[in-house]
């Protein structure tokens, strides 16, 4: 880069910073949210007032709409990949093929390392669950605006920012773990899985707590107009990316690990044959 280009880059960066600072100071320090911050944060958790009409049939939490959208996008993307991309795979992979093979290989390797005896379905499930958690968490960065039943505009949150969505994901993973135990050990596998009865609770609330913390921090920053020029971009993006990566890894790793434990074949102890006395 030449000296002239460097000077131009620093000049543009300086102008941007000056404009941002001017916007912050000119707007003052008055709150930019509607209503009390406590009520806003409470509604971000419980969604009592900020519900959305589902085609006029019922009023639902906005996270349910987000879940439908993310699921539809992932299914359409998967169908498009299977029809148009995968049949054209070559021995020497291109960039897209390498990206897909790396992602599949990551979850397949996780399944094989944790459950070497039974891992085909496990690999497919943790890949789907990881993709849903990752893409669902990044979904809130789009900031898709909808109008709630109260007439206020709001952005659709992440699907798992709702406690119901987190519980559904945790219970589904627990059922998958139990299915591995039943497939390998029959009814005994149910008992092996039920020993960790707190597992679905811990997985559900870990997801909900992590994603909700990012939502509340971003909501708090956005509430103050003086801070809503620079900080939300940094806070929102960093929190969202961090939670997307960590939570997708944690849930898939826990599922693979417990699946491998309960699906391990437990052989019955052979009865010792007593030697007859002479």
Give the overall shape, derived from the CA principal axes. Answer: globular
> What portion of residues is helical?
55-70%
> Which percent band covers the strand fraction?
under 5%
Quick check: average pLDDT? 78
Number of helices: 9
Strand order of the largest sheet: 1-2
Low-confidence stretches: 27-34, 269-278
Distance between the termini: 97 Å
Using only C-alpha atoms, the radius of gyration works out to 25 Å
**Order of helical and strand elements:** HHEEHHHEEHHHH
Tell me the number of strands.
4
**Which structural class best describes the helix and strand composition?**
mainly alpha
Question: Could you say how many structural domains there are in total?
Answer: 1
Main beta sheet: 2 strands, antiparallel
Give a short summary of the structure:
The chain is mainly alpha-helical and 278 residues long. It has one domain. It has helices at residues 3-27, 37-46, 62-85, 95-114, 120-138, 163-185, 187-194, 199-223, 231-262, and strands spanning 52-54, 58-60, 145-147, 153-155.
Structural description of this entry:
- It is a single chain.
- With 278 residues, the chain is mostly helical.
- The chain has one domain.
- Helices cover 67% and strands 4% of the residues.
- The protein is built from nine helices and four strands, in the order H-H-E-E-H-H-H-E-E-H-H-H-H.
- Strands 1-2 form a two-stranded antiparallel ribbon.
- The radius of gyration is 25 Å and the shape is globular.
- The model is unreliable at 27-34 and 269-278 (pLDDT under 50).
């Amino acid at each position: 880069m030449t000296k002239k280009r460097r000077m131009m880059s620093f000049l543009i960066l300086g102008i941007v910073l000056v404009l941002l600072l001017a916007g912050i100071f000119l707007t003052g320090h008055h709150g930019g949210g509607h209503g009390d911050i406590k009520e806003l944060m409470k509604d971000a958790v419980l969604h009592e007032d900020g519900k959305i009409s589902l085609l006029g049939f019922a009023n639902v939490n906005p996270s349910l709409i987000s879940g439908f959208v993310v699921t539809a996008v992932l299914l359409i993307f998967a169908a498009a990949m299977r029809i148009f991309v995968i049949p054209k795979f070559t021995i020497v992979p291109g960039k897209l093929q390498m990206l897909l093979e790396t992602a599949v290989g990551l979850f397949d390797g996780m399944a094989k390392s944790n459950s070497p005896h039974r891992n085909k379905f496990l690999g497919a499930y943790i890949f789907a669950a990881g993709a849903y958690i990752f893409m669902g968490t990044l979904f809130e960065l789009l900031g898709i605006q909808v109008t709630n039943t109260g007439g206020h505009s709001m952005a659709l949150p992440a699907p798992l920012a709702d406690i119901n969505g987190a519980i559904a994901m945790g219970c589904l993973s627990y059922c998958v773990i139990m299915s591995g135990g039943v497939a390998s050990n029959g009814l005994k596998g149910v008992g092996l899985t039920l020993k960790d009865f707190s597992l679905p609770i811990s997985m559900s609330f870990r997801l909900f707590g992590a994603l909700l913390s990012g939502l509340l921090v971003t909501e708090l920053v956005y509430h103050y107009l003086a801070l809503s020029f620079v900080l939300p971009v940094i806070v929102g993006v960093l929190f969202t990316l961090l939670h997307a990566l960590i939570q997708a890894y944690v849930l898939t790793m826990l599922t693979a690990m417990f699946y491998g434990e309960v699906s391990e074949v437990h052989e019955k102890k052979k009865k010792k044959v007593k030697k007859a006395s002479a």
